[in-house]
Amino acid sequence: MDSLERVVEVAPSLPEAEQQSLEHLLYVLSALGEMAEQMTTNPNPQSSIRAIVRMACGALGIRRAALFLYAPEEGELYSVVGSDEETVRLVVTSDVRRFLWSEGGNLIDRENPHPLLIEFMTGNSELLCDLPEATWLPLSVTRHFLGLLMLGDKLSRAPLSQTERDILILIGRQLAVALHNNQLKTNLMAANKQLGLKVWQLEQLYDVSRGISSSLERDRVATELMQRAVELLGARKGLLLLKDDSGEWCEVLASFGFSLENAVPRDSVNHPWLLASLESEAPRAFVQSELPHDFDATWALSAPIVYQERLLGVLVVFDKEAAEGLEPFSSEEDVPMLANIASLAATAIENARLYELATVDGLTRLFIRRHFEQRLSEELRRSERYGTQASLLIMDIDHFKRFNDTHGHQTGDEVLRWVARTIRHSIRDVDVPGRFGGEELLVLMPETETDGAYIMAERVREAIGAMELPGPAGEPLGVTVSVGVATFPDHGRDATALVESADRALYRSKALGRNRVTLAE
Amino acid sequence: MNSSFAIAVRKDPQGRFAVVITDGYINNLGGEKIGEAAHRLIAEGYTRIIINLEKSTVINSIGISVLIEIIEKMEETHGRLAFCHLTRTIQKTFTMMGLVQYASVFETENDAVLGVLADA
User: In chain B, N or C: fewer CB atoms in 10 Å?
Assistant: First the structure.
C-alpha cells in the first residue's frame, strides 16, 4: 500500500475523484501482484487458491465468494472455497458444462440468463440458495473447463463498475492458470508415483527372475519364489501349492511361516478358499472368516499359477505386516506384484518340471543313468583339477527279485520308491543320487574321502534296514541293501574305473552275506 | 516484509466490549489471526469489538477481505465494530474499500471505547 503514498506525492495536482480512482487501481494492481506471488511461491496449491480467492474479495471489496472445481468423472462441481462445512456438490450436465466452458473468462449475465444456466440453477436450486449469487465467473483454459467462481455483493451493495468487472475477469484468468497448473502438477505427481512404483516392481521382478534362473531344481525354485513373494509383499506367511496331474489334490511345494510342512492336507483342494483361489483367473483376496482356522491368518492374497492356459497351482501370501499390526493387501501395489511373481513362477516351475522329466527317474525320483554319468564325469574332472577326493556308493537291494516274485511288481516298485526316498533323506544336499536301472542305486559324494563315505554308506544302510514298509497284506517287509564304496583317485582315476571298483566292492558285500558296506581295494 | 504477527485481546471486565490489538503486517497470517479472534469473541457474545491497529502499518487485500467478513458477521449479530489508531495509508484504504461506512473509526482506543459504549 506504499504505492498509495506515492500517488499522493507524484499526483497531488490531480482532481480528488481522479486521484481516488488512481489510488484504487494501484491498490488492485498491488493485489494482483500478491496473487501472482501466491501462485509462484506458495508450495501448497490448495492454500494458494484459497488465498487468491480471498485476495479477489479484498481487492474488490466483495463480501463473500465460493470456488467450485469441475470433476469430469462425476459430472459435478464441488466446492473448495467458501463452504465452511461439508463439500457442496452441484450437478453439471454435459450441455451445461459446454455452456460454462464457452463462457470461460466472461462474467455470466444473470439478468437475462441463458436457458442452460436456468437448467443448471433449477437442477441445483436447494444448494444454490446458500451460495454467493451476485456475480458468476466460469474458469477455463484452452480446452479445459476448470470450475466456477461465485461472488457475492460488494460491501456497499453497489453493482460492480465496468473497471471492476474488467479487473475481475483478469483475476479469473489468473485463478484459472493457477488451477490448471495445480491440476497439471497433481497429474504429474500421480504419474511420477505410478512410474516410480512400476520401476520398483520391475527391479524386484528382475531380482526374483535372476534368483530363480540360477537353479532348475523344482524345490529350490519354489522355495526361492516363496521367500521373495513373502519378502516383497511384507507378508508373514506364504504357501506355494501345486496341483497334481489328476487335479484331485494339492502338494505344498514351498511354505514360509507355517510350523508344519503338512499345513495343508492333501484333500484341501476341496476346501472352499483353495477352490476359490484355483478357480480365480486373477489374484484374489480373502478375509479371516474364509480361511481355515488352523492357518491362524487374518488376510490372504492368492494368485493362480498358470502356464499356457494350464493351471499349475496357486501362490498365497498371508497377513501383510504394517507399522502397527496387520493390514489387508493393497490392490494397487500388492495385487500386480503377486500376479507378476505367479507368472514368473509358472515359467520357472514348468522349466524345472521339463528338466526333471529329462533327468529324473519317474519311479524313484533319482537321477537317470545318463545324467548321473554326466555329473560323475564333471565332478571327477573338478576333483582332479583341485586335487580333492570324491566317493561313489553303489548299492543293490538284497533279494529284490524275491519281492517281485512273491508280492508282485507293484510291491517291487513300492520297495524301490521307499528305498530311494530313504536315500534322498539320508544324504547331504551336495550329494548326487542316481539309478542305473533295475535295483542298482548310486550316490556320488563330492569332496568326500573314503572314511566319510563309509560313514555315510552305513547311515544309509541302517536307515533302509530300519524302514517299516507294509506289504500287500499289511505284513512288514524287511528290506536291506548291500553297498560298495570307492574313492577317486585311490580306487579309479576315471568314471568307468571308479564305477567298476565300487561294483566289485558291492559284490564282495553280497558274497559276504549282504546287508553290509564294503570298501574298494 | 517482516511476516511476524502478534495479536492480543483485552476484554472489558463487565463484558460490554473487547479490544483486539494487532502487531505486524496484516496479510494471510495476520488476517487469519484477527478473523479467528473476532469470531471467537462474537461466539462468546461480544457485540462491540474494537480493533486497535496502532502497531500495524500495512494491510493487504486478504486483510481487507477478513475485515469485510467480520463486518458481515457483526451485521448479522447487530453488533458494532470500531477501528482505532489507523495510519494514513490504512485510513485511505478503508475509505476506498467502503469499510468506514460499516465500522466507526477513532483516533484512540479510549475514544473507540467511549464511541462503542455511547449507544449502549
Answer: N
The closest CB to that of B92, out of A23, A58, A155, belongs to A23
Question: Which stretches of chain A drop beneath a pLDDT of 50?
Answer: 1, 262, 266-267
pLDDT value of position A11: 61
Distance from CA of B22 to the nearest CA of A (A): 18
What ipTM score was computed for the predicted complex, to two decimals? 0.90
Please report, for residues A7, A481, A497, B91, the alpha-carbon distance to residue A2 in angstroms, rounded to integers and kept in the order given.
9, 107, 106, 13
Distance CA A2, CA A21 (A): 16
Q: Does A24 touch chain B (CB under 8 A)?
A: yes
Give per-residue pLDDT as tens, A294-316. 788 899 999 999 998 888 999 99
Cβ pairs A/B, distance under 8 A: 78
- Distance, in Å, from the CA atom of A244 to the CA atom of A452, rounded to the nearest integer, reads 38
Burial class (CB in 10 A: 0-12, 13-18, 19+), A311: middle
pLDDT tens-digit series, residues A374-399: 999 999 999 999 999 999 999 999 99
Q: Tell me if A23 sits within 8 A of B92, measured CB to CB.
A: yes
**pLDDT tens string B81-101:** 999 999 998 999 999 999 999
**Count of CB atoms within 10 A of residue A457's CB?**
27
Q: Do B68 and A62 touch (CB under 8 A)?
A: yes
Can you point out the beta strands (E) in A322-439? 326-327, 390-397, 432-437
Cell 462468546 -> residue: B44
pTM over 0.80: no
What element of type H or E holds A487? strand A481-488
As a whole number of angstroms, the distance between CA A521 and CA A96 comes to: 101
The SS3 call for residue A229 is helix
Exposed, middle or buried: residue A429 (CB in 10 Å: 0-12, 13-18, 19+)? exposed
Amino acid present at A251: E
Please give the Cα distance from A165 to A446 (Å, whole number). Answer: 92
Grid cell for residue A151: 461472488
CA distance linking residue A215 with residue A209, whole number of Å: 11
Q: Does A51 touch chain B (CB under 8 A)?
A: yes
- Decide: A223 and A242 in contact? Cβ < 8 Å: no
**CA-to-CA separations, A1 to A13, A167, A365, B83, in angstroms, rounded:** 20, 18, 91, 18
Contacting A residues, span 166-225, partner chain B, CB-CB under 8 Å: none
Interchain pair B61, A59: CB under 8 A: yes
Q: In the numeric block, which cell numbers belong to residue B66?
A: 477478513
Which residue in B18, B26, B21 sits closest to B2, CA to CA? B26
